[in-house]
Amino acid sequence: MGNEEAVFYSRVLTELTLSFHIIYATIGVGIPLMIMLAQWVGIKKNDEHYILLARRWARGFVITVAVGVVTGTAIGLQLSLLWPNFMELAGNVIALPLFMETFAFFFEAIFLGIYLYTWDRFENQKKHLLLLIPVAIGASFSAVFITIVNAFMNAPQGFDLVNGELININPLVAMLNPAMPTKVAHVVVTCYMTAAFVLASIAAYRLIKGSNHEYHKKALFLTMKVGFIFSVAAALIGDFSGKYLAEYQPEKLAAAEWHFETEGNAPLILYGILDGEEVKYAFKIPNALSILAHNIPSAEVIGLDQFSEDEIPPLYIHYLFDIMVTIGVWMTLLSAVYWTGIKRGWKMVSTKWFRWLIVLGGPLSMLAIEAGWWMAEVGRQPWILRGIMRVDEAATTSGHVDTMLVLFAGLYIVLGIGSVVVLRRMFRNNSVEREIEDREMEKGGDMR
Amino acid sequence: MNLEILGISVLWTFLFGYILVGAIDFGAGFFNAYSLLTGRQRILTNIIQRYLSPVWEVTNVFLVFFFVGIIGFFPKTAFYYGTTLLVPVSIGIILLAIRGSYYAFETYGARGHKGYSFMYGIAGILLPASLSIVLTISEGGFIEIVDGAPVLDYWLLFTSRLTWSIVVLSIAATLYISAVFLTWYANKARDVEATNLLRKYALVWALPTMITAGGIIFELRIHNPAHYSNIQALWPMFLISFLMFIGTVWLLWRKRSYGVAFALLTGQFLFAFFGYGASHYPYLLYPYLTIYDSFTNPAMAISLVVVFVLGLAMLIPSLYLLMRLFLFDKDYVRGKGDYHA
Fold first, then answer.
1. H/E segment holding residue A270
2. Which of A207, A427, B62, B294 has its CA 20 to 30 A from that of A342?
């Protein structure tokens, strides 16, 4: 296998691993917060339904955590296995957040173990809630630290490159790079949003399938409300990300927006198809790109004409951008309508078709996460460290990457199917109705 | 002590932690699967699950900690080991993934699913073998530099007696460590039947562990004479290790003080592991990479040490809490309350 092929297969394998991992990682970051909220609401309202909600979510969460942990271990090692030259160079500058991430992970692992095995062990439910705080903090902070590493790849700083040698290294400056604030905030908030919509989708599905229990209605309302709040936050931070890109990574924004000529009053292009350099069937919102980039309708936005051909990312990232933004906006609207509908007593939000839309929302949000990551990562091409190291200089020289790709693809199929089968069986065999009955018998009927 | 030594000592300690808790974990999975096969599952499964369930994720973090730490302190290892270890470590990751997730699937999702138990039992016993390849490679002689990039000679690796002795040692030691720990744990749970069975396993695996460990030192005399002479210089550590081994076996044989037996076993591996590590000094990969020429820049090293100290300040109380609630809680160990989510 030549080096070119090794680079290609390394890219495919990394993309495969990350795409699979982020499904579980997103859930892993978002769900602890939801469990914590449910537990807290349950204590505050003295409502056993919410406590049960927390407990059942926690049970399903274990399965997703297991897959998240093992695929996370895989990508952690693959960074060195597939991109040894990159890690050798970048390790000098960016090892700090990687190291901090393992501590966050450690912290979460310890308290998750305690949390899962101390149900009903403490008389006071508040103590049990306290255990969830480190779990949620640990989960969110692993996302924060690992996203800092990724932000560094987009906006490397904190060192001087003199004759191919790194000098004057400052790990903190490397961590606090310009890409960091928007990236970290966007990742964390969209994880919360997606986890909420995934849980909403489950509750809506149970309601459609005939279980008209209070429990599911409470779950649906809580998750949609949280989902709405975080989707608004995601949109706001998305806007800041646009401004960051215009300032620091204009080629990514220009490629995502098919913005070829540097000009003022730049229109935002939605949808459409690219035919050579001609954009067809697109909606153009006048001045919107200038507003997105600089908050001023007439501001000049740098176009692709400012970059040499071998520094321009693939133009298909526009479609990914469209997918992400469309789903984001759609989910914000859907959850807003649902929330208002419940408050105002609209019948529509309890109809079957509306609930089907909510069911669809979980997978759609996950798709938006994938599309957003693909856009962010492909939009950085051809660089692995923007402006410093190209992807083809970073890859391994090993001749076995293609075989490993097949092996890992097989693994992810096995894990994907396994986790779905187990999760389904887990909840099928122990419905909410039955669990509530069981607990009533145990407790002597203090559940409403 | 300079930062290089401090860095490698910290990492070596975490690797030791992983080997110890990992061995308990892998061996337990194997014994669980084996007991299914021989119809003794009733005796062992409860004990094993009660210990493993709250800690399986923590075990995995020790490994992550080690490999992230070594890239952090010694970034050049990414270049040498990353390039050459693609195949063996990828196989290790796959086994780890199957093991970890199928453990969770079996324990939390589908209790009593035999297929899942076998999957994680077998994956667990192959894991030490696949990861121990790294130790073999670090002895040198298997990697050649071609056009400025390291290349691993698989044929040489898989036909080497050293490779196979290390593989056999890792498997035997895994089963031995696990059985001794579980004997103690079962005894604490006052589960006589499980204690007796596990004690038998511990005694069965004691001798192979010792024979292979001795064999490796002998192999090294031919393979890497410099390392062999370093080991000889550190003979008191290996002697202490051996005496502790005798102590463990004697206590198990006389059916007494299983707690002390496990402590002696920990000491045995601690001395052997650090003796081995110290004799490897200063090489990370013989003869290409020493801890000095691969060390990171001072600014990063200092910030890593600071984070490490802060991290430990957070971890140690948390680990203590975890152990107090599960390992040293009588009611939990005896299975009086199962407060599983």
1. strand A268-270
2. A427
The dihedrals phi and psi of A268, each to the nearest 5 degrees, come to -90, 130
Q: Of B66, B101, B338, which to mutate for an interface test with A (greatest number of A Cβ within 10 Å)?
A: B101
The pair phi, psi for residue A269, each rounded to 5°, is: -100, 125
Low-confidence ranges of chain B (pLDDT < 70): 1, 110-112, 337-338, 341
Count of alpha carbons within 13 angstroms of residue B194, beta-carbon side:
27
Token pair in block for residue B51:
């210990």
| Distance from C-alpha of A232 to C-alpha of A59, rounded to nearest angstrom | 29
Report the alpha-carbon distance of residue B109 to residue A429 in Å, rounded. 10
Q: Cβ(B154)–Cβ(B201) under 8 Å?
A: no
pTM across the whole model: 0.90
Integer Cα distance of B312 and B17 in angstroms: 14
- Chain B 280-319, CB below 8 Å of chain A: which residues? 296-297, 299-300, 303-304, 307-308, 311, 314-315, 318-319
* Binary contact (B315, A103; C-beta < 8 A): yes
Segment B133-188, tens digit of pLDDT: 888 888 877 887 777 778 888 888 888 888 888 888 899 999 999 999 999 988 88
Three-state DSSP state, A399:
coil
Q: How far is CA A5 from CA A12, A80, A130, B276, in A?
A: 11, 18, 51, 40
State the burial class of residue A297 (Cβ atoms within 10 Å of its Cβ: 0-12, 13-18, 19+).
middle
- Chain B nearest-CA distance from A326, in A, is 34
CB B150 within 8 A of CB B143: yes
| CA atoms of A164 and A232, how far apart (whole Å) | 44
Nearest Cα residue to A92 out of B295, B180, B117: B295
Dihedral pair phi/psi, residue A384, rounded to 5°: -100, -35
CA diameter of chain A: 76
Of B126, B155, B159, B156, the residue nearest B141 (C-alpha):
B156
